[in-house]
Design a protein that fits this description.
Layout: H1 6-12, H2 38-46, H3 61-74, E1 78-82, H4 85-96, E2 102-106, H5 111-121, E3 127-131, H6 136-142, E4 147-153, H7 165-173, E5 178-182, H8 193-196, E6 200-204, H9 206-210, E7 218-222, H10 224-238, H11 244-275, E8 281-285, H12 295-301, E9 308-313, H13 316-325, E10 331-332, E11 342-344, H14 356-362, E12 368-372, H15 378-390
Parallel strand pairs: 2-3, 2-4, 4-5, 5-6, 10-11
Antiparallel strand pairs: 1-7, 6-7, 8-9, 9-12, 11-12
Helix pairs in contact: 1-3, 1-11, 3-11, 4-5, 4-10, 11-15, 13-15
């Protein structure tokens, strides 16, 4: 299996078949399990063997199949599947940190991630240092001998900044700090967290893996010691485990993941090409597009910049809203990495809680649009965008 390519692993890794030999993975909608004897129950509560389960909050056969498959896909030893992407982020951080620990994080994070760091962990005595994640010197200066953990988005949401992951990993590991990478924007197909040495890759499985607007989910991937040690202990006692039906839909979605993501990323690049230089667009950002200031770094880490681009409509919020309201195919919503193309206004939705000074610092302007490329025909999407720009 380790010699298989990613597309093959996404279809077959971690498969477990019952005695009936089903082709499609089975969904075990059960929260509990029975034992042949009281002695067997006692032994299982003392130590779980492979494919042994006691309660769905601790593990379930369908969920375990998904955990094995996504860990294999991203190149890690193990995985804990969670109820949502934010459950994965908050669970991993809380499981690995305690009062007095020091964390260095890129300031260009999703609003909920900033809330977990600044409003929750800081309240319980964790010291948080936020820096410009694109500045290698800033990482070097902020990481201290007592730094416990560093955290960043591989590609930031929504401004698509790219972190030099190899540099950050080297600086963190030099002082024994753990590296957590939020891999949502990089996509599971083009993920480079493991190749760059990140200890943990956190994925919102709502994005790309489900990718069809149905299920919330998250995954924490890392070494077996970390996943089945502090992370599993925290998650199983606090109730963050993925439910079996979500895991089953994710397993089926993984079969088409590679095809969907590659098509969407190609469309995103085509849209960036079409928008670049438009008189009503101030700037376009897509990591592997020539207009991106970090294109060389992005291409050194992955062959594609993902499925999401950002651009700024001239004229601020009023012009941006006029543009968005004129779209016909592209929907207005706050998710991304869906089969349907989605336009989001981060300043008033996903990142609205940030103080204006922080929005300005991150580049989340009133005219910024985050566009998630879907599976529609690229020419139709470009025509929709151009017609909507005419309304500005």
């Amino acid at each position: 299996m380790t010699e298989w390519n990613k597309r093959t692993r996404a279809v077959h890794a971690g498969t477990r078949r019952s005695k009936w030999g089903e082709v499609s993975e089975a969904v075990f909608l059960t929260q509990g399990f029975v034992y042949d004897s009281a002695e067997q129950a006692e032994a299982r509560f003392q130590s779980l063997g492979d494919d042994e389960f006691i309660y769905a909050r601790y593990g379930n056969p369908t969920v375990r199949m998904f955990e094995d498959r996504i860990a294999n896909l991203l190149g890690y030893e193990d995985c804990f599947a969670c109820t949502s992407g934010m459950a994965a982020v908050s669970g991993a951080l809380t499981a690995l940190l305690k009062a007095g620990d020091h964390v260095v994080a890129a300031r260009a994070l999703f609003g909920s991630c900033l809330y977990v760091l600044e409003d929750i962990l800081a309240r319980f005595g964790v010291e948080i240092t936020l820096i410009d994640g694109c500045d290698n010197a800033a990482w070097d200066a902020a990481i201290r001998p007592d730094t416990r953990l560093v955290f960043f988005e591989s590609i930031s949401n929504p401004t698509l900044e790219v972190v030099d992951m190899r540099h950050v990993v080297q600086a963190a590991h030099a002082v024994g700090a753990l590296v957590l990478a939020d891999d949502a924007m990089a996509t599971p197909v083009f993920s480079y967290a493991r190749a760059c040495g990140a200890d943990i890759a956190i994925v919102s499985t709502t994005k790309h893996i489900d990718g069809q607007g149905r299920m919330l989910g998250g995954a924490i991937c890392g070494s077996r010691d970390l996943i089945r040690g502090p992370i599993e202990s925290y998650m199983k006692h606090t109730g963050g485990a993925m439910n079996p039906f979500t895991a089953w839909t994710h397993l089926k979605a993984l079969e088409t993941l590679d095809l969907r993501v590659r098509a969407q990323s190609e469309t995103a690049l085509n849209i960036a090409d079409a928008l670049e230089g438009h008189p009503k667009i101030a700037s376009v950002r897509f990591p592997t597009h020539p207009s991106h200031p970090q294109q060389a770094l992005a291409l050194a880490q992955a062959p594609s910049g993902g499925t999401v681009l950002a651009f700024e409509v001239k004229g601020g919020k009023a012009a941006c809203f006029a543009f968005m309201n004129a779209l016909e195919i592209i929907t207005i919503s706050n998710n991304f990495a869906d089969a349907k193309s989605i336009a989001t206004h981060p300043a008033t939705t996903t990142h609205q809680r940030l103080p204006q000074a922080q929005k300005d610092l991150l580049g989340i302007s009133p005219g910024l649009v985050r566009l998630s490329a879907g599976l529609e025909d690229a020419d139709d999407l470009i025509a929709d965008l151009m017609t909507a720009l005419d309304a500005v």
